[in-house]
């Protein structure tokens, strides 16, 4: 496989896997993502190993499971000792550029409590060089708007209100008040093209982040009416949210507490108040935001082709996490359902891919992205890394001993905007779950709440919990033991390969880590 000269890592926000046309979402039009899929390998069974944004991006960029990097929620610091992709790239001569954000809270031991980065959800991960800032609080974007001559309202976020004085906040097909040429998607693309035109022939790495299709769910014209609600798949949910709430205490907490305000600028009311028509309308807007990203990616791809860089550039396209979009009556990225965790992944190697256009069904996880990029560039994959390079899968399919299940985690301790820990009467370090999921069954283990067990063949959308079923007791025990073994295999191991001997320091190295990634 040809070694890339350049790497373009595209990280969108809140794009779920079943909104990828190459994987069957024929209600969507994304010609530029399709172009990437035709020339690379698309992964059908890919998950983020945790949600929401901060923890997900920590796993993506460190290659570590949540249980090892421990930036367990938005606002929780990332330990400075962990190697990340930016720092690893610097070791092999790249100056890793970043457009967008990583939602990383810094290690407080290396700064002080008055550091302004502790007043926001997160800032930039150390090791990257920002060439198109969004964090903190979107100042980079709003400053760009002002520089362009756009008159910002007193409350800057009101650019995402529906157009028109009589507009009612909520699910709508009205456009937002900012035009498409000044949207945040346009901003990120402008920053990307500015960076690429300035690298002056040097090999480059660019993390190109997009804020969409993250809420607020409102699109600029013409994307606001690019899709009709009738084209959208309807929500997968019980007839009444209270029926779903009986499945588990954590689900009950979220169904009673999620409001529409975080998803529609200025809206009120509970998320469970969205009827099917409103959900379909919201999904049409979500699809429009996706098409807006796709059009902008086309600008970047065209530039790389026109300048002769496309063939020597590895492109990785993924999202930080998914979005419930009304399934199970939920909005956002929370809990344990697949919609929050299943995300797109496309890898186009440099040159001509041996499996161009293939859809790979092996189980892959967000922690595999970092080692894949490092392996492609000839870098050293850290011993502590929980993921494995996907290059063998891109070239020929999964090697012997590849993982036989998906693994992901969620920590629901209190943060300033959500307090399930308090609501459920749990301790901070009891508020967590882990999932082991293969093609047939899904097991959800909680530190201090009842487990869940689903038969994915008979109940693919996970309505019926079989954890207390006597007929499934043996399977529940087996999957619980597998989950425990997974955690034991992946316990933090930065220094565990080293040992003192009479002849001095010995390093047993990564070749002894075992068969499973």
From TrEMBL:
Keyword flag Coiled coil: no
All residue ranges annotated as the Sulfatase N-terminal domain in the record: 5-378
The protein's name: Alkaline phosphatase family protein
Protein's UniProt keywords contain Phosphoprotein: no
Species in which this protein is naturally found: Paeniroseomonas aquatica
UniProt entry keywords in alphabetical sequence: Hydrolase, Metal-binding
A Pfam family assignment: Sulfatase
Xref: CDD domains: PMH
Signal peptide annotation: none
Listed NCBIfam families: HdlasePehA
């Amino acid at each position: 496989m040809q070694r890339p000269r350049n790497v373009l890592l595209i990280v969108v926000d809140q794009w779920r896997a079943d909104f990828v046309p190459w994987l069957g979402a024929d209600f969507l039009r994304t010609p530029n993502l399709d172009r990437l899929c035709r020339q690379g390998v698309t992964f059908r069974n890919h998950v983020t190993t945790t949600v929401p944004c901060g923890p997900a991006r920590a796993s993506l960029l460190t290659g570590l499971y949540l249980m090892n990097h421990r930036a367990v929620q938005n606002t929780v610091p990332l330990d400075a000792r962990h190697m990340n992709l930016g720092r690893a790239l610097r070791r092999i001569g790249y100056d890793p550029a970043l457009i967008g954000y990583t939602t990383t809270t810094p290690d407080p031991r290396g700064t002080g409590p008055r550091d302004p980065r502790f007043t926001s959800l997160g800032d930039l991960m150390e090791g990257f060089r920002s060439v198109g800032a969004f964090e903190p609080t979107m100042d980079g974007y709003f400053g760009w708007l002002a520089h362009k001559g756009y008159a910002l309202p007193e409350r800057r976020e009101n650019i995402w209100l529906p157009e028109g004085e009589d507009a009612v906040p909520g699910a709508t097909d009205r456009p937002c008040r900012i035009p498409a040429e000044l949207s945040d998607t346009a901003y990120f693309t402008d920053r990307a093209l500015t960076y690429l035109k300035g690298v002056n022939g040097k090999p480059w790495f660019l993390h190109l982040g997009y804020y969409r299709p993250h809420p607020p769910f409102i699109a600029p014209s013409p994307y606001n009416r690019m899709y009709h609600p009738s084209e959208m798949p309807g929500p997968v949910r019980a007839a009444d949210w209270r029926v779903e709430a009986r499945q588990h205490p954590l689900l009950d907490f979220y169904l009673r507490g999620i409001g529409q305000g975080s998803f529609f600028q200025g809206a009120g009311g509970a998320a469970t108040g969205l009827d099917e028509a409103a959900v379909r309308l919201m999904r049409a807007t979500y699809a429009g935001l996706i098409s807006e990203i796709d059009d902008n990616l086309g600008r970047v791809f065209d530039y790389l082709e026109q300048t002769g860089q496309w063939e020597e550039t590895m492109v990785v396209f993924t999202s930080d996490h998914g979005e419930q979009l009304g399934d199970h009556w939920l909005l956002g990225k929370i809990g344990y359902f697949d919609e929050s965790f299943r995300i797109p992944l496309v890898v186009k190697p440099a040159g001509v891919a041996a499996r161009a256009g293939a859809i790979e069904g092996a189980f892959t996880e967000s922690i595999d992205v970092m080692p894949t990029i490092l392996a492609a560039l000839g870098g050293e994959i850290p011993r502590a890394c929980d993921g494995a390079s996907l290059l063998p899968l891109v070239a020929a399919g999964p090697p012997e001993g590849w993982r036989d299940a998906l693994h992901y985690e969620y920590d629901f301790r209190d943060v300033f905007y959500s307090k399930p820990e308090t609501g459920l009467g749990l301790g901070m370090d009891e508020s967590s779950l882990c999932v082991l999921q293969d093609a047939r069954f899904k097991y959800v283990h909680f530190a201090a709440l009842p487990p869940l067990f689903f038969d994915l063949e008979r109940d693919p959308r996970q309505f019926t919990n079989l954890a207390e079923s006597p007929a499934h007791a043996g399977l529940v025990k087996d999957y619980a033991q597998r989950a425990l073994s997974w955690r034991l295999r992946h316990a933090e191991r930065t220094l565990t390969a080293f040992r003192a001997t009479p002849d001095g320091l010995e390093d047993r190295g990564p070749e002894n880590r075992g068969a499973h990634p």
